[in-house]
Write a structure and sequence with these properties.
Layout (H helix, E strand, L loop, with lengths): L2 E4 L2 E4 L2 E16 H8 L4 E3 L6 E14 L4 E12 L8 E6 L5 H11 L7 E5 L4 E8 L2 E9 L2 E2 L7 E9 L2 E18 L2 E5 L3 H8 L8 E12 L3 E2 L3
Length: 232
């Protein structure tokens, strides 16, 4: 079984997330701006409607997993490798701040996830699930997700390829998700931007704006396989 040594601890593959909670919001954004933002990676945004790409914001509270408990925020795009077929659509992870050094090092070294250290204010108990991310005491982004309608039976498990690019290396990671206790709705999202390059990029994409839909997942299990370097 493959494994990686991180801060003196052996991390076996695949990494298991046994319990987490998550909230996410999906936005339609100008495809040209999305393309310019992720051009460094060799990925191009998928356009479900000509001229429009899909950008998601999400936050996760990892409670029980192989990397220990931590908080995470994600800015991601539905995308594919430049010149590839539509069968290779995946999720390109553009920004992934966390609040613990172990998962930061593991994420960057094992999968090439663009993790950086940040401060989090997270509230999953109120009618609005909220996450604010700051760096050096300065707000970057705040996302609030209103309570949606319970999805009967939850959502089916899914598998997707997660693409990442740091230091010019594009990687693909198999990512399996098994959500339950799911609530979803159209819109239902509040976004506040601070002063940071990521906030400026989100503003270029037209945020704050209404979301296509939002969801909260009360119980989320996931599996991350080993990353594979791919040609961009």
């Amino acid at each position: 079984m493959a494994s990686h040594l991180i801060q003196g601890q052996r991390v076996a593959m695949p990494v298991q997330v046994r319990r987490a909670g998550a909230c996410s919001a999906m936005f339609t954004v100008p495809a040209g701006e999305a393309r310019a933002i992720i051009d460094y990676s060799g990925m191009v945004p998928v356009e479900p409607v000509p001229g429009k790409a899909l950008c998601s914001l999400a936050f996760v509270s990892y409670i029980d997993n192989d990397l220990g408990p931590y908080y995470e925020f994600a800015v991601a795009f539905l995308a594919r490798r430049r010149g590839s077929s539509m069968r290779e659509i995946g999720v390109f992870i553009h920004w992934l701040p966390v609040d613990r050094s172990f998962t930061l090092e593991a994420g960057r070294r094992i999968w090439g996830f663009p993790k950086e250290m940040a401060e989090f204010e997270l509230d999953l108990d109120g009618p609005e699930k909220r996450c604010a991310v700051s760096i050096g005491g300065q707000l970057v982004v705040e996302l609030g997700v209103a309570q949606g309608i319970r999805v009967p039976g939850g959502m089916p498990g899914s598998s997707v390829d997660a693409y990442t690019c740091i230091d010019g290396v594009l990687r693909r990671t198999p990512w399996n998700m098994r959500p339950s206790w799911v609530r979803s709705r159209p819109g239902g999202v509040r976004v506040r931007l601070g002063e940071h390059p990521i906030a400026e990029e989100l503003a270029r994409l037209g945020l704050p704006k209404a979301a296509v839909f939002s969801s909260s997942i009360g119980q989320l299990a996931m599996t991350f396989g080993d990353a594979e370097e791919v040609a961009s």
